[in-house]
Records
---
Amino acid sequence: MSNMDSKLRLIQQSFNSRYSEWVREALDELSDNFTITDPSISGHPLVFASRSLLKMLSYSREEVIGQNGNIFQGPKTNRRTVMEIREAIREERGIQVNLVNYRKDGTPFWMLFHMSPVFGKEDGRVIHFVAVQVPITRRQRGNGGVRLSEEASGLNEIMFGSCRKEVDTNSVLELGRVLSSDSSSNVLDIEETCEASDFEKRRAANVFNSILTVLTHYSESTGRLVCGKRCSVPGVGYISSSLNISLGRIKQSFVLIDPHLPGLPIVYASDAFLKLTGYDRHEILGLNFAVLNGADTNTSSEYQIQEIIQNEQACTVRIVCYRKDKSSFWNSLHLSPVRNASGKIAYFVGVQMEEECKNMDRHGLSPEMRQLSTVGAVKVAVRSLSMAAGSSKS
Amino acid sequence: MMLRIKRVPTVVSNYQKDETEETARRSGGCGKNCLRSCCIPEAKIPLYAFKKLTKIDAENDVLAIEEKEPPVAFLDSLILGEWEDRMQRGLFRYDVTACETKVIPGEYGFIAQLNEGRHLRKRPTEFRVDKVLQPFDGNKFNFTKVGQEEVLFQFEASEDGEVQFYPSAQIDVESAPSVVAINVSPIEYGHVLLIPRILECLPQRIDHESFLLALYMAVEAGNPYFRLGYNSLGAFATINHLHFQAYYLAVPFPIEKAPTKKIATLNDEVLISELLNYPVRGLVFKGGDTLQDLSDAVSDACICLQENNIPYNVLISDCGKRIFLLPQCYAEKQALGEVSPELLDTQVNPAVWEISGHMVLKRRKDYDEASDENAWRLLAEVSLSDERFCEVKELIFEAISNGEDIIENTADTMLKDPIEEKNTIPKRSHRTMVAGTQECVVQQ
């Protein structure tokens, strides 16, 4: 369970390192439904859920913190909408969509999902995503302003009457029962499109602003300010939030090295790498891989790594590496060039394999195969995510 | 009259030779480590046995997810790891990650790739495009001729309800193994071929069992950016040996972003929608009480198209949750000389990936000038006309539902006297195109 513990620690830190300690209380004073997620933690988990939201969905705080937002989705959640949200996260922008969410007891309901990023003022990185959920209490026809939404069928109009009531638990359940018994269904079922009113949309935007005000205020005292719009250009070597999310899914120990920067710095380190070496992320980023060298490290291995990078070839070297606590281990380090969408090399990925731990995982994938799969996953992520840079949306 | 087009076939295996060379060689032992009876007894290939699901939305219990490595990540790692291994061994004809690629700015985000090495400077071969079903021809290239090093693993259902992996397993001919092999001319990273029951040498035609296998692969990989595709003969399949393709691309496909309109629900909860605002007309299947229900609905539709000689493509996306079925007619148009030379010059053969919005372009000029409009124009040529698509829809619904258990949303396609009209539309071969006089009919 130590994976869970260290993840919870990261989640705590997500808030604590950025905002002063009263921020949670201040957020709890807001009576709206919202969640806050951290894209830099693997799995893009919830780091905060408002009391109102927990009550509305009938979950306890412990059940949702650390989970991905998709736990609130279910079979009737429109897959295309889910994809749109995923892409908004990838592109680090806001989105407002109508979405079917599920309570803990499995009952679905429509709500307006308004998500917006919160940026670090000094470096322009996405710190958190804030998602406001406003239950939709009125069903309306029409496409409204949401592009690419499903065209409402004429039937929607006929069924207006029965839907113009508060969507509380009971009526949703009743609607469900009616649908299942009537097989030649002309009844509008929860599947069909549902559009939030302008009032609800404005409400969502206002709630977001209130949250942002709280977060901004409480970030002042730590000196690490946040803001609603990106104020500065992310620095060189910066890994975008979307690449962060994708790389965070890879469970192996690996780093990304930027071969175009002087010193060949590490620009990304996976959680597993940090666990293996005992370092914190901020202690490692920006340093050369030689930070892992120590007394017994062959000086030629540093040269070897440099040569591999120059030759732009994939290669494995065996070197002695040192953890933060000075203990050492034999590392079968596999290095490979990683190209982006331009076809040119963007990074080198270095995947560690601790030789004493040559254990097959439960299913029997060999350590070498796991190393290669890490390379593959990184290649897909870097290539794909750099393709979308040129696209314009909404 | 036979309809044929000439094109340079894509080389998918390092053992794929010229047509002429194929027929000249006789089968006999080869010493090449292939998958025929000459080499099979010695073959040892990894085996991945997947767990058969009972419910389509059997999501992992999220509260327990931290406790163990979820099995879905495993197949993903296996494919990526084995593929990277073959890459480092130099088995691919080129490094696809060195090919420039971009998302074209615009509403749909068509994807273009500049790939000069995919198509060889070889003599084009003739392909018959007017018959969707053609018998298997052992003299031509088929996947039993690939080298064992091109095979990544065997893929089949596990016997005991748990995921099993054997790093090195003999090929058990009796169990009709299915394999996953590399495509040596990849469109993207991880481009593989799924060959169901490879030793049975099935021709390129969908059957229930094979489609279910493909769907399982999408589900097992658990990655929304790993999609499977199928091209029928006449819709740009070049090898008449049953196979699906798959690869990784971590951006949404334009077709996945297109809006849809629900048009029917089957009584096993499979939902059928129609694509809207997309250059190619098609159907989208999703839902179903079980994975098998969804699979059977789609394969019933495919079998119907096959039997009516209508070429089509299939895209399995969103981890098997959404399946696109696209009948097409581009090859026929090409054979009849109805496609503009401008479009022909791009040498884009609109198979499933192109129709989904991923275009591989051979010329720098086409890549630099790639636009939403160009892509749309090309794909619009691929689509069936409105009238023809209506007919095909009706054929499909009849095949899936046997006329009764279907619940249709009759929103805006109702016409007068549908019963009479119905009797005048027999199952016709797709050669006789509708001239626009026939009204579109929807079953009541």
---
Amino acid sequence: MAANMRGLTQFIADIRGARVRELEEKRINKEMANIRKKFKDGNLDGYQKKKYVAKIIFTYILGYKVDVGHMEAVNLISSSKYSEKQIGYLAVTLLMHENSDFLRLVVNSIRKDLDENNEVSNCLALHAIANVGSSEMAEALSEDVHRLLISPTSQTFVKKKAALTLLRLYRKHPTVIPAAEWALRLVSIMDDQDLGVVICVTSLIMALAQDHLDAYAVCYTKAVDRLHRLVIEGEYSATYAYYKVPSPWLQVKLLRLLQYYPPSEDATLRSVLHEVLQTIMNNSAEPSRNVQHNNAQHAVLFEAISLAIHLDTSSPLVGTSAILLARFISSKETNVRYLGLDTMAHLAARADSLEPLKKHQGTIILSLRDKDISVRRRALDLLYSMCDTDNSELIVGELLRYLKVADYALREEMVLKIAILTEKYANSYKWYVDTILQLISAAGDHVGDEVWYRVVQIVTNTEDLQEYAAKVVFEHLKSPSTHESLVKVGGYILGEYGHLIANDTGYSPLEQFQVLHSKSQFCVASTRSLLLSTYIKWVNVFPEIKPQLINIFERYRHVLDAELQQRACEFYSLASRPDDDEVLQNVCEEMPPFPPRVSALIGRLNRKLGDTEDKRTWIHGGKEMNLERHGNSRKATLGPGSSATGTATVTDTADAQDVMSSLAGLNLSSSGDQLDLSRVDVVAPRVAVGPSVEKWFNKLTCSAEGLLYEDVQIQIGIKSKYQGHLGQLAIYLGNKISVPLTSFTSTIHVNDSEALSATFAKIPPNTLVPRTQSQQLLHVECKKVFSSFPILTVSFLAGAHQSISIRLPISVTKFIEGVKLGQADFFERWKVIGGPPREAQAVFPIPLDGTGQLDLVRYRQVVSGNHLEILEDVDPNPSNLVAAGVLHTSVDGKVGCLLRLEPNREAKLCRLTVRSTSEDVAMEVLRLIEKLLRSDCS
Amino acid sequence: MISAFFIFNQKGEVLISRLYRTDFKRSIADVFRIQVVSNSDVRSPIITLGSTSFFHVRVNNLYIVCVTKTNANAALVFEFCYRFISIAKSYFGKVDEESVKNNFVLIYELIDEISDYGYPQNSEIDTLKSYITTESVISSAIAAEESSKITTQATGATSWRRGDVKYKKNEAFVDVVETVNLSMSAKGTVLRADVDGHIQMRAYLSGTPECKFGLNDKLVIDKNSQGGASDAVELDDCRFHQCVRLNEFDTSRTISFIPPDGEFELMRYRSTSNVKLPLRVIPTVNEIGTTQVSYNIAVKANFGTKLSATNVVLRIPTPLNTTGVDCKVANGKAKYVPAENVVVWKIPRIQGGQECTFNATAGLTSTTTRQVWARPPIDVDFEVLMLTASGLIVRFLKVFEKSNYHSIKWVRYLTKASGSYQIRF
């Protein structure tokens, strides 16, 4: 191609050779005129079109405006030659704005290329979609891209690109992609043979899962499994090992993905994960000589430590990581120090005990003086997070000392953090006032208004503090250069409480006045007006300096600033009233205490944190802050639709609130309507139905083993065993076809995880070999009474992606153990329990058997299938059934249960009565047995 | 005053760097390069950053830059720049990157001579040439003699002229050169028409001659003081060479002077009223649909039939999406130049009173974004000999000398337009 596009080469050479801009412009004008002429004349062959479009592209990327050639570019896309198609796509992605009308013309050509069974065309089309990323394209083509990604015939290369294209589309237009709908299918690709595809898909899932945590919950198991295979079993091809670390990128992504989810309850997953993290930490214990190897190892290690912290802060793993981190923060390499401090801040933000970190306090404080500013920042964050009542004075003192030499870029943040820490961990109010005043005088320019508002609030609300504060402020004001914020604080505090210290030597009214007034000429109008208010307060309490003050009001009556003038006039007339007038006294009453308010400072600090692509899973600050935040975010993500709306409202309202309303302590991060949004329950997977499914299920509810589901591809059988509140289910999964079922995933969905837990004994294998059966053990534990059946979802790839959800026949009655009781015992208990509400009764029609008789055998089967012991000779009527049992639960303990069944042949009705010490149990047992008896399962 | 003097090339590389004072470092040149040369938005010749002002003049892709920290007289600084350009021109012809590089030693010598500690000094070309030469070194004896003459000349009553000038043939040439600037609206009303004129004199006269110069009878030199008749020639902003006796001019309006030897610019003026436009251009341009533009342009010579305009060049703009232009002309040649998006119509000569026409059709191509054509103005360049657009005429030039010799005087007029004779359509 390059060889025969002589014109293009010449054109580029000419432009490169142009000495001045004018010459270049002339050359381009000439060429463009030529191209216009050629295009107008038409009759161009593909090669010529390609050449001219290439020239146009070159002109465009030099920064010139181009307004021809778009149509030709569109035509080139549908060319059959690769080189022409490529130039066409290049032109489309470069020249066309995402809202360009021409893109409509391209959509069809792109779709054709996506449909084509040609890797190269597919890739070009995917590139174009990702680069342009317009909403129109996203709407029209995201389905096709998705199809390419999931199609078994796609090449790995195409799959990779398709995944990344979807990621790009999702980031730009999150609403276009039905993320929740595609969840299972996308997650199944995480089992792909090719690690490259897995990396790309994991990136996509990371983005999607952040907004659809529950829809993508399946990926948790997959990620753990993948990590296990990668790290422990070493299942990866040699090309994916980077300096002996198996695919560090994938590891990091998986570890990060796991952090988006709350720690799993599943003991198996936990132990596997623990093993993985342990291995990663062991592998990295020895730093290697090779820089790249080190980098890769550290990348994985830091993410692993983060995950360990996320999972459980008290686990021994975290102990190990704390030791590792301590080593890192004193490392020679800046990057390692940075990451060490960052991760340590994560630890400090989540850990219960800060003791392990406090050992390194000295090192961390030294890091504040690191030569790299980003390291300094991280050190600051860490100190902020690890501060508590014990070390607050030390840390704040250190920060204050450092503030004076700190970088300007860092100061504002430091000031805020110091202010928050001082307030939060102040042991004494004196210390608080001292520190804040020191802060204002040291870094006045960087002190936001919120900081001094807060001082005033606290001083006003704390009576013991007022005299002390007035003295300290006065001392600070005496220094020759004071910042305006300090003047404001001084003006307010001396005005309110100056009279408290007026009798001490050195603090006389006149001295107070002179010190304060000497500052006023350097201040802006708003500060001066505050000072005027101070003076009128003084007119009230210090009659001895009244003449001077009136003199000042007099002068200010003529200034140009409207606010100042008005105040001066009003105060002047107020002050010149006769001495015995009460108006002045009433006006200048002491300020009442402020209503208690939440500090606005933290809100201010959090607002400053920018949001990047991948959300942080923690914030700086103590453990409480993280817990609170976690609660909020959980609510937000549970809401319908994407969480983006949830967080948007939070930030919007936070931005909208002005300083005053934030002072009032309105914490808007959890408003009422948001709580309502969060009430929506997670939608359970849709259960497979069919008459035979129902039949198999019913049969299994009263027997220990049998078939649960069967179709042409798969057969699922169950064997179960119960002992007390524990149960064990062996699930047999049989592959009936002659190809392996890949990406095999089985998950258990329990509606009420408080009452029932169900976990697999180990992570199930992800392929099912043809014509074999595999067994998976499921442990169940009954904690409380529950009413819904757990749902088993099995998904696999057999050509297409299939997903089957079936109810598992695990009911409350399975945890009942029969008890033998004599007639007397039975009736005694029956009476003790008494009638409603602890009795549940129902009368319902029952089917008769073929001969028109009561099917007593079946009734017995049903009752004993539900693990109740049938008591003979208790009821005089032989057709009546009486049974008893005890339900074992791990939380609520044992619950007794008595049952009486009275069928009536003539009326074809039967009466079922269940009495239990717990009304829930009675209801539930009644419901279960009634259902079985009603159904005609002959 | 001027603290530093630089010459930059197109790319912002420093060719000449001279610091007259210590208040700048050489790195101040980088500031100019970043703020002006590489910033295409800057069009103003004066940029003030903080307390530093940059004055620049562009000539042939060079930037002549003066930097100052004080509140200097901007007109003086620009005059200094232009003076430098004219000096450089007379020393080595063309001022461009090549010649600056070739003559950098000479340039340093010159800029040291014409400015001392940032204050402009004698910049008379003839005087400079007497002691800054490009020739080989003269022997020391003559050099000593020459230098003593310089001292007497510089300290004498007429610092611009030596006393001992001798010519066999005493001659004086006067050139009145006027540049016409015009901008005419599409409706044919004159938005702006003015004349920049200067009178260039070459005096080859012996001794110390006293010259007297007379212009039109009805000449209004300072418009504000007198009403002025409607047909009078009004001159604004007259500026004279330093040899002209200004007090005499102020009292009796006569221009009397002792000329320097050789070529100099006697006066410079501007005229904004009663400007005679030598060429009338009547354009009719129609956009036919979105695919064609038709042109019909007539040019009429608006002066006596004995005179003629030469080197007439019309630059007729075409839309940016022109594919080709089909031109028909009776006089001269017309050609579409795609590089500049104009049709260039060259007419070698137009006799007074004659009219030429131009007919053309430009074909357009369709574009992605439909933009209205800005219709830039038609630009006309021409020269007319023996005509002054302002109507200024030299009535007499008298030369008085002690020896009372006979002298020959020549007067020439030229009116021209280059680049700013524009007609909108």
---
Amino acid sequence: MYEDLSWSEAKDLLRKWRDDNERKSDEVVQIFEYCLADKIKKLGTERLIILEQVFVAALDCSRIKLAEDCIRVLISEFPESLRVMKLKAMLLEALERYDDALDVLESIIKKDETNAAARKRKVAILKAKGQISDAIKELCDYLKKFMSDQEAWHELCNLYLIEGDFTKASFCMEEVLLHNPYSHLVHQRIGDIRYTIGGQENIEIAKSYYAQAVKLNGNNLRALYGLYLCCSHIATSKAQVTKRKEAQKLATWAMSKIFDITNKSSKQQQKSSKTSTGNNKNSTDIEALEAAFGNLDAKLN
Amino acid sequence: MSELVISPKAYIKMIFHAAKYPHLAVNGLLLGSKTSNKSEITDAVPLFHQCLYVTPMSEVALIQVEARAASENLQIIGYYAAAENFYDNTIDKVPAIKIAEKIVENNGSASVVVIDNKSICMDMKHSGLKVWQWNDGKWTKAKHSLSDSRHTLDAVSLLLQRGAMKELYDFDNYLDNTEHDWSNENLNFDLKKILAMH
């Protein structure tokens, strides 16, 4: 697929993926091998950063020899660099020589106490070894020193989710929210976690986060579904009648928005479908959801 | 304990899901039918590849898949998952096993199919799956077989080499963009043709 790219198009594509921090390791390796490997000199100022990108992608695809070729160039250009040392540690990680990798990382930290990347790689190694609670401990220590690293808070949230500690996971996501107050995705994720914990209070809190997510992005289907679920729970709970009525109205509104979004594309699906099944699928899906939460009108009377 | 038979379509879709997101945990539902001594899995519905542990979208998915399955005279009889960690392939490391427990609650029994990450390659010689079934209040190891195993394994190997897993859509893809069909009708159609050729 990438054989026809010119070398400058390939360079631009790699730059885009670097800037967006996209993990397209398979594609990066392919592009490098097809378009750029024999034109390395033409890469100019981007040569070394591309080699670093290809190095990481090669590790991801288990292409150890390619990774070793890349890092050889980087080591010869920057023999004393801590950044390149971290890459060496990643190579050892990929080879599962975790103790050697940890040694390299420790020596980086000794040379530079403020080196965040090396500390985070230690957490990655613990995670790779399956030692989730140790990874959590290490990451918590890291966050005491580097409190505003939102990537780390996000990762800590994921680790807590693996362990089933939803309350702590929610707290971590709220830290991410502090750095991204207008992110509909983070609001929605907190809603998800709160809903998962369950209980009347958490469902109310989840509802407000989902509502905020929908306010920020009316097309966030997960937030709309989440809002619908929360409101349905509240409407059929033992709360005050006014609250239940309000929740029911909101649930109905959310469902109509969901219907709009899902219906819009079922028409498109019909055109590109290779089979001739009807497009009633979406309405049956929605009906099933409404049926599962019972007839809201009946319960309120 | 019943014998578990997995259809080529269900198997290929499970493997595709895991192969499409090699660095993430994935999960999904298994549809089929059960008799007293045999469980037949005829289709797989891929669900998520991010944040498997939160429940709201799982609830929505379970309800919608159940409804869709019923319209085709099928039931949700199992759950499949591939763990994020390369070496995790036992029942205690299955992500979001609660979904499987929910299936047991609704149906009385269920199978859990774990994809053994290290067995997945471009030249599959065996299924690379491990199966547990709910028995007497706990998950017990069970046997499984692939229908038309040799041809299925050849087909999946060839398709993996071609990168066909990118054409699979899961429920997460659908939630991101409702034009992505989580029931994978187009893929089902293609798979039918490919499997007929083998």
